[in-house]
Amino acid sequence: MEVNMTDGDAGVLELEVTALRQESDCVLSVELADPVRRLLPAWEPGAHIDLGLPEHVRQYSLMGDPAARDHYRIAVLREPESAGGSSYVHAILRPGELVEVGGPRNNFPLVAADTYLMIAGGIGITPLLPMIRQLQAEGKPWQLLYGGRSRRSMAFLADLLGDERVRIHPFDEDGHLDLDTALGTPAEGTAVYCCGPEGLIAAVEQRCESWPAGTLHVERFAARPRDDEADLKAFDLVLAKSGRRLTVPADSTALDVLDAAGIELPNACRDGVCGSCETRVVSGVPLHRDALAAPGCTDVIYPCVSRAQSAELVLDL
Prior knowledge:
Keywords: 2Fe-2S, Flavoprotein, Iron, Iron-sulfur, Metal-binding, Oxidoreductase. It holds the Pfam family Fer2. This is Oxidoreductase. Its cofactor is FAD. This protein is an alpha/beta fold. The protein folds into 3 domains: 12-105, Elongation Factor Tu (Ef-tu), domain 3; 115-219, Rossmann fold; 229-315, Beta-grasp domain (Ubiquitin-like (UB roll), Roll), CATH 3.10.20.30. It has 7 helices and 18 strands. It has a 6-stranded antiparallel β-sheet, with helices on one face. It has a 5-stranded parallel β-sheet with strand order 9-8-7-10-11, with helices on both faces. Helix 2 links the parallel strand 7 (115-121) and strand 8 (142-148).
């Protein structure tokens, strides 16, 4: 199955690994630069890149300074059950190696608000760090709740400790983050940003149900848990520009059907995480099985995993 990382004008870049740094007992930061030191495509807080590794493409949040366009910086969590992405980075990747990079792409942008509450679990701190730096530069009020298994596992603590706006919660010392206190009273004008494991995100989503619509912004590192495989139904895709109709069987994806029909869309993860295959919906109701679409979203679909609630979807293709 071919993976196409092409994204906009930047396309796919070949970058050099210029530095590796151990940030905690399980997190390694990676610095990437153009081999001849050209400036890299611009990005904003919340953006990520697609990192091409042998037999894998993985998405990693950019966590450096957007103004420093001479390099990108990401952080990679070592996962015991890794299918090859994190284990390769930690065990094999070395300075001087060339890697393919797609993006940057931003599905987690920083929106305008009166104040900000950031909630991070483990490696979920990475997309929030550039946001915090921007908020500090703009003089915007913010708070951060940062939880992890232990202090040894929590990356970038040295950059955060000592700031009264930061509350650190190592699980082995303090237990779970106190979300009931942090989110117990809806606050008008506050934007809540959360990134971390699925359990944390689900808990934050549940507590924000009574908050004003549009308050909560989350980024998942994997698509939402899916328990609907047995209930999936076939549906039709109609391509608005040609009128062509394609049927998506219950056991296939819209992206695979489009590929087979010779319609190539950018795609990197095929798991509803990266956003590269985003396609505008002209009519019909999508069934979102991705990690990106906001509740009630009907104007876009991620055809690598998402489907249709209606009998057909008309796409802007």
